[in-house]
């Protein structure tokens, strides 16, 4: 019955055009912390240029040296639903700009969709999508998708980073087709009819087979042919090793901000924490799965957010992963109305 339920859930995803892949991991990760630190791009720095929301293993730190910093060994809990996943995943934070000049962080909700409700305290949903024979990431592997300084929508592939205006206040009512298709845009939708804004970040799935990281956190990986959340197309000869396709899915709940009288008289109402639009959306990834569990999960066709004993993959209940949190390492207020975007000096409440 469990296997049939898994297939039924996957079939529901396919029917709604979510992802053209029967067996994939898709699971919830709750908010570990919202903090102005970035051990990938700005290691050791407190009060980095912009704010991030981080999920995953609780060993997340200001500095996480590749290989020597063993996330799986150092973490005592994870804010993700799979017990064996101590990886860290983080993205920029979305803010609403009020007409009076103050800012408010946009809250996030889980996106169960046809799969059934995934219960997140903030956070995001993570996908690992295989296509044929895939090689799991190795300890010390890390990468970056997107460019936090990009201001030109035309320089961003809509098939890899996109936003969708979600006109239903219920994430279970699926809106549109597969991620980053149809009316999805690189830009953040600026429309009061949006009840939620779904952000999708698809990472490169091709690896050079040698480097766990590179100075730009990008050159060791590449996108293959085609775009979209389908496990990825053929890899280039420079990056011949096929990785699981990692995808982040975030649901920004903008229902509180639909009153048009709150919106600025000019300029966007919704921006990311770099004070830039959708073209600057980006995601950071640091691998931290225990042992060879991820490789076995890919090989054994483990599906969605279900236990998979043949791969040693087990889930934990929402109350447990929701309880895995850490304190800010760059302390400042991030909730409620703020006088200015948290950039530079410590944030101050409005």
TrEMBL record:
From the UniProt annotation, give the residues forming the signal peptide.
1-20
Keyword Signal annotated: yes
Ranges for domain DUF1996 = 38-289
- Highest taxon, organism lineage: Eukaryota
**Keyword terms, alphabetized:** Signal
Pfam families from the UniProt entry: DUF1996
The protein in question is named DUF1996 domain-containing protein
Has the keyword Signal been applied to this entry? Answer: yes
């Amino acid at each position: 019955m469990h296997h049939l339920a898994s297939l039924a859930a996957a079939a529901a995803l396919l029917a709604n055009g979510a992802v053209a892949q029967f067996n994939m991991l898709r699971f919830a990760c709750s908010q570990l912390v919202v903090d102005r630190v970035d051990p990938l791009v700005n290691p050791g720095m407190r009060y980095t240029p912009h704010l991030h929301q981080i999920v995953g293993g609780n060993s997340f730190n200001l500095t996480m040296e590749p290989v020597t910093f063993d996330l799986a060994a150092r973490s005592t809990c994870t804010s993700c639903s799979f017990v064996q996943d101590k990886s860290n995943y983080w993205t920029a934070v979305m803010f609403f700009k009020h007409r009076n000049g103050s800012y408010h962080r946009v809250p996030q909700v889980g996106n169960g969709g046809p799969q059934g409700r995934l219960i997140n305290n903030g956070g995001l949903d993570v996908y690992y999508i295989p296509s044929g024979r895939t090689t799991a990431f190795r300890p010390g592997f890390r990468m970056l998708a997107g460019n936090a300084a990009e201001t030109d929508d035309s320089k961003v592939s809509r098939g890899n980073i996109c936003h969708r205006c979600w006109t239903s206040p219920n994430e279970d009512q699926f809106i549109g087709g597969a991620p980053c298709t149809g009316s999805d845009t690189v830009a953040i939708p600026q429309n009061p009819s949006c009840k939620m804004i779904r952000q999708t970040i698809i990472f490169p799935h091709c690896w050079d087979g040698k480097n766990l990281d590179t100075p730009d956190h990008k050159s060791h990986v590449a996108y293959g042919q085609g775009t979209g959340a389908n496990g990825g197309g053929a890899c280039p000869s420079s990056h011949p090793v096929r990785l699981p396709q990692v995808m982040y899915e975030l649901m920004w709940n903008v229902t509180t901000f639909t009153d048009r009288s709150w919106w600025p008289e000019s300029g966007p109402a919704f921006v990311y924490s770099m004070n830039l639009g959708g073209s600057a959306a980006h995601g950071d990834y640091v691998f931290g799965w225990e042992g060879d569990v991820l490789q076995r999960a890919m090989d054994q066709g483990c599906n969605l957010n279900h236990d998979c004993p043949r791969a040693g993959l087990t889930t934990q209940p929402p109350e447990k992963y929701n309880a895995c949190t850490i304190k800010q390492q760059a302390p400042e207020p991030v909730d409620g109305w703020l006088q200015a975007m948290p950039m530079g000096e410590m944030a101050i409440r409005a």
